[in-house]
Structure formats: C-alpha cells, structure tokens
C-alpha cells in the first residue's frame, strides 16, 4: 500500500490551542484524519511526522523518501530560513505540496518569503485546515494513476476502411 508523508514543523503540534484566531481550532490529529479521508479512495495511507526541530524533519524526509508517493509539508517558520529542510526537500523524488494555515502574505513582512516554496509542486495558503485537504487532492492529481490503454474501436459502417 502506498503512503503520503504528512510533515509538520515547529509549533504545529499544539494546533487547536495555539493562537486559534490565526490558526483555527482544528488539532493536528483532526488534520491527519482529514488527509487520511482524502487519500483513502486511492488506497493510500498517511505517515504523519511533526517535529519542532529541523534536523528531525530532515531525517524524516530521508527515511520516507522511497516509501511515499508524495508529501504535504507545513514547514511552519522554517519556511523562512530552513535551509537544511530545503536541501532535504530538493532531494525528495516525489511531488510535494507546501501548506500554511494562515495567509502568510497578509501577515508580517518576514513571513512573505519561503526558501522552500520554489521547490514545491504547489503551495496552499490561508485556507486553514481545509488547505491540507486541498493539498491531498492536488497530490492525488499529480500522482495520477496510469490510464488504461485506449480502447480500439472499429466501424461497422459499410465500405472499405480508409487508406
């Protein structure tokens, strides 16, 4: 069975209690469940990893690089200066989507630049916990199952086949 890596950075382990006016009241467990619901139809599982330290996130990317079909990554504040996280994601072979609960461009200036976003297959911001569902849908689109061979049709109309 295939799996999606759900990677969450610093301070995301306290979602639901941390500044709910900005980040909402959904917990990380709620988000994990929502992502699992989205990818279940594809037969995918979710491997969820949250760490407050960048080194642990880098290790998780390397450990799961060959066992996952893609990733959903909320780097938290590491988007700003997480250079080792950026380098680990640069070597991640599958598509991945960067997610942020808040609209980072509507907030403080220092949040307006992400060192990892240019590497992402896509970025979802400002839609709260629902953004993770959208990221899961995008990942399923990017990891489309191979289509079945086109059916060969024959004409039953009279006359010779065109040359």
From TrEMBL:
CDD domains according to UniProt: DHQase_II (cd00466)
Cytoplasm listed as a keyword: no
Site keyed Transition state stabilizer: positions: 18
Pfam families to which the protein is assigned, alphabetical: DHquinase_II (PF01220)
Keyword Nuclease attached: no
Enzyme Commission (EC) number: 4.2.1.10
Coiled coil: none
Pathway in which the depicted protein is active: Metabolic intermediate biosynthesis; chorismate biosynthesis; chorismate from D-erythrose 4-phosphate and phosphoenolpyruvate: step 3/7
Catalysed reaction, written as an equation: 3-dehydroquinate = 3-dehydroshikimate + H2O
Active-site residues per Swiss-Prot or TrEMBL entry: 23 (proton acceptor), 100 (proton donor)
The entry's keywords: Amino-acid biosynthesis, Aromatic amino acid biosynthesis, Lyase
Chain's role: Catalyzes a trans-dehydration via an enolate intermediate.
Family as reported in the entry's similarity comment: Belongs to the type-II 3-dehydroquinase family.
Quaternary structure and partners: Homododecamer.
Protein name per UniProt: 3-dehydroquinate dehydratase
Designated gene of the protein: aroQ
């Amino acid at each position: 069975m295939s799996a999606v890596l759900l990677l969450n950075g610093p301070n995301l382990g306290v979602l639901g209690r941390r500044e709910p006016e900005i980040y909402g009241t959904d917990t990380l467990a709620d988000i994990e469940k929502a992502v699992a619901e989205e990818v279940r139809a594809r037969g995918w599982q979710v491997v969820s990893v949250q760490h407050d330290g960048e080194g642990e996130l880098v290790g998780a990317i390397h450990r799961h690089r060959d066992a996952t079909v893609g990733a959903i990554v909320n780097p938290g504040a590491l988007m700003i200066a997480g250079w080792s996280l950026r380098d680990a994601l640069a070597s991640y072979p599958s598509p991945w989507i960067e997610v942020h609960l808040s609209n980072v461009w509507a907030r403080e200036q220092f949040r307006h630049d992400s060192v990892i976003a240019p590497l992402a297959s896509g970025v979802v911001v400002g839609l709260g916990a629902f953004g993770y569902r959208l990221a899961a849908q995008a990942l399923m689109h990017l990891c489309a199952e191979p289509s079945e061979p086109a059916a060969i049709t024959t004409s039953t109309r009279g006359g010779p086949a065109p040359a």
